[in-house]
Amino acid sequence: MKKLMSALLTTLFLACTQSQALADSTNPVRECDARIKSKDELKILNGKIELIFSGSPTLEMMANYKVPNQKEKEAIALWIEEQKKCKQLGDEWFTSARPEWVALIDRAYSDMFFLAADLYGGKINYGAFAKGQVKINDDLKISMASLKQQLRQQDEAKQDAHSQQQAMEERRLQQERVYQAQQQAINRQQTEAAKSAATTNLGLELLKMGQPRTLGNPSVNCTTYTRGPYGTINCQ
Predict the structure, then answer these.
(1) Of 53, 150, 154, 236, which has the maximum CB count within 10 A?
(2) Given its phi and psi angles, is residue 122 left (phi above 0), alpha (psi -120 to 50 degrees) or beta?
(3) Are 8 and 144 within 8 A, CB to CB?
(4) Would the pLDDT of 205 be above 50?
(5) What are 102-114's pLDDT values in tens digits?
């Protein structure tokens, strides 16, 4: 099984970069884990605890009912300090990770540190510590799966809301286009009606200018005909 903490941090990084090669080559947590494993001061703990936490201790580790002696306690204290350094590197490296994932890392590390404190203080034995590591690993995997599903549902809900917003905006634009087309049609009708009315009025004026008129004494029938600026009068 992959080393739990570095594997989790790498998973978070991949969620941001989608680059396995980059994660494998530059992951500072992996390098930090390697330094822990190579420290001579920690070799006294080999076979008793997992220096590189994988959540998969051996059967011998889980069946070990001994408690740490003074030298082993000193090694445990050093191991915790080195683990904290690795976590700090991870925090600095994964600044772009979603806070929900970071919270899972923090909780897993805290659980491990509390468990190590109980081992250091003699409250639990090596076997209980190993079993506690298994529980931390199992709880973390369950939390990761639950969070992954929750975040996926949130992303899907956001996508649905975005799609609905786009559809509403498209309907609004379509209604606006229909309204504008209707207004343009009304404006054209009004313009054509105004032109038609103007033409009719002009025709009536021209007809009036050409109609006969009766002037003078009613007993004398005089008629004037107007043509442009001039007129002709006939009397009978």
Answers:
(1) 53
(2) left
(3) yes
(4) yes
(5) 888 888 889 989 9
CA triple 146-133-33, angle to 5 deg:
95
- What distance in Å separates the CA atoms of residue 173 and residue 231, rounded to the nearest whole number? 64
Side chain identity at 198, as an amino acid letter?
Answer: A
- HSE (side-chain half, CA atoms, 13 Å) at 69: 3
> Which is nearest to 125 in space by CA: 167, 77, 65?
65
- The domain segmentation of the chain, as residue ranges, is 4-161
| Beta-ladder partners of 223 | 214, 234
**Conformational region of residue 41, where left means phi above 0, alpha means psi within -120 to 50, and beta covers everything else:** alpha
Question: How many residues would you count in the chain?
Answer: 236
pTM for the full predicted model? 0.59
Q: What is the pLDDT of residues 12-34, one digit of tens each?
A: 444 443 334 334 456 777 788 78
Q: What is the torsion angle, in degrees rounded to the nearest 10, for the CA atoms of residue 81, residue 24, residue 39 and residue 135?
A: 60
